[in-house]
Amino acid sequence: MHAVVVGGGIGGLGAAAGLHRVGWRVTVLEQAEEFGDVGAGISLWPNALRCLDELGVYLGESLAPQRDGGFRDRRGRRITRWDSAAFERRHGRPLGAIHRRDLVKALTEAVPAESLRIGSEVTEVREDGLVRFTGGEVEADLVVAADGIRSRVRRALFPRHPGPVYSGSAAFRGVARLPGTRLSTSFDRGVEVGVLPLTGDDVYWWICYVTAPGGHPGKPDFGTWHDPVPALIDATPPEALLHHDLHHLGTPLPSYTRGRIALLGDAAHAMPPFLGQGGCQALEDAVVLAHAVSTTDTVEAALRRYDAERRPRSQKVAKESVRAGKLGPQLTNPVATKLRTAAARVLPAKAAVRIGAGITGWRPPRLPRPVPPRTP
Known about the structure:
By secondary structure, this protein is an alpha/beta fold.
């Protein structure tokens, strides 16, 4: 059985790794001239780490487990503590952070090199499995459309769907080297600043703020915020500073499948980043799809199962992500902001790690393990 994966980001490579692991032949078509993922870093919650285990993806020392940190206001005053030990006891896994480039590298290593094709722009995907691209065409038993939030495949399958909408916020992102930096999330009216330590003294940071779409104010000015926020911004090379308007699929899709095509990741359920679950949900998709095709008699039945399992959960997570934004970094009312801070201050650290456990506690189905070769 042969699967063609359209898109070589986290979701597409995860799907390729899973399908390869259950015995399928895989071709990944990536439009860019190299495999990579736009962005600086990514948080990997326990649900994603379990998925990577099932996919046979080894992160090794490139994964940075997050230790004790907390939530603060712009002046650095602690709002509540984040108890990493309690979190790990509850989930059996830590919250992790990683350079996106390292995650993509680990995913590509879980897929045969001959399956990966760069510089291959897909021009047409048919429901019968025919895929046309700049290098030719191929017939597939399964097509995985993992071509992102602006998915051309999704537009072709659901031409009446309104597509992505603006979330109300934009974000700066960057990576800087600053030894000794600890995990933190800081809030002010309409603003969230996140700090995630990576390996090798690197630190992934982001600033999410409420603004009209289409603007770019230049380098962010957060000199009055607590340490290490100003230092992280100053230590980030200007050419490495990223700025994006944040979009999501405001209208849920009626299905993630058509014919032999499965939509996956942002192509299916792009969500705002306020729960850190975009990439995690794509990896969940990848495991569930691989499990469905390996335990079902036909591709059609497998895709029905995939849609039935993934659509309700991922759309619920997307809805919760929107809600988290409205109650967190998009909250601008001064009275509501003070009430939120006061409520968070009295929240015990052990209670804080239980928030969102229904999302991060998800466990993937088990995929078949590779059979080791027999020794003479």
